[in-house]
Amino acid sequence: MILGSPVTSLSQSRNGLNQFVPSSYLPRLHRNTRLRVKCMSEPKSSTDFFDLFSFSGPAPERINGRLAMIGFVAAIGVELANGGDLSAQLSSGGLLWFLGSSVLLTLASIIPLFQGVTAESKSGGFMSADAEIWNGRFAMLGLVALAFTEYVKGGGLFQV
Fold this sequence. Notes:
7% strand, 2 strands, mainly alpha, 5 helices
């Protein structure tokens, strides 16, 4: 650029040719004084019991989803192996296994939360925290659908 020249920028016209535009034709950009930039680092998660187990807290849906994933896979697996429906599985000792695994998975899920570790900070790639939430939701729906189907059918899902 030549000093003192009224030409200050190079713009592209509609036909694709570059042309010089005089500075008097360019709009003035005013600085917005209300615009503030904040750091968007990940906030420290709360380790308070009531914050973790609140309705929108990180613990309830994640723990229930993990239990549903284990329960759905176990229920389908035992039904394929033995042919017993969900109620037969629960009455023949499955309830104790369910309670034991529920306690173990709940403790394994809440201990990191009480230490301030979030699932989002440990997730990445294919096995993300969002994928775990969605898989848990589908497993919850799958368990309900399995129980409802077996109730309506009057027996196991894979029984003829």
